[in-house]
Sequence to fold (181 residues):
Amino acid sequence: MKRPILWLAIVLLLVLSVNVYSDDDEHKWKQWFSGAASDIRPVTNQLYKQECASCHMAYQPGLLPAASWKGVMSGLQDHFGENAELNAEDVAIILDYLQQDAADKSNFGRSAAFARNTSEQQLRITESRYFVRKHDEVPSRFIKDERIGSWSNCIACHVSADKGVYDEHDVSIPGVGHWDD
Ligand code: HEC
Ligand code: HEC
Fold:
């Protein structure tokens, strides 16, 4: 090895490119560049908070692609076994908001990961490949605790979910405690 500096530079480049190309690190890089503290843009629309957060948390628009939100908003009379119907005017306003901030429109890295891994037919965040992959080491018996109840109850474990923060270091599971993998 005649040129140690050159070799060092090549190794560094390789390490960096491996990092940039994994979903998560891509998200962290983008976050550094944008200076954002959240993984996903927090909810900003009051009507959405008022109408869509009585039975569960207000899911950030950036958790589902625009096509999925359209599907959710066009089936509110039979919404996962509940009637969540709204008047046409409110549906239009909320759908517009959800579409503008949807995962495939957002520049937040975590949203990009959700967008890439959710099909247009999917109406659930929890069915996206990204969600499933991220939780495959979390035992599903945890959700039997009545304080959790369902994978859809993000904020039971992700204590800062309402701020759009889903980092694995910001997780505390009821009955289990701080998550350390
Ligand atoms: C009457 C209660 C109720 C209202 C109001 C309601 N939802 Fe839901 N929502 C539910 C239930 C129940 C589920 C399924 C939760 C579960 O499986 O644990 C659900 C699930 C969801 C999911 C899928 C979560 C997952 O599993 O990934 C989305 C997205 C969603 N709701 C969006 C909305 C939107 C948008 C609105 C407002 C237009 C809304 N919800 C209003 C009851 C409601
Ligand atoms: C039972 C508790 C629990 C629930 C409910 C839950 N999560 Fe998680 N989530 C975790 C744990 C634990 C991890 C870290 C897993 C690991 O590191 O292997 C995680 C990881 C994640 C990650 C990746 C974080 C990172 O740093 O890479 C995202 C994104 C995420 N969850 C989003 C969600 C969303 C969105 C919901 C609701 C629709 C949700 N989670 C519901 C426990 C939960």
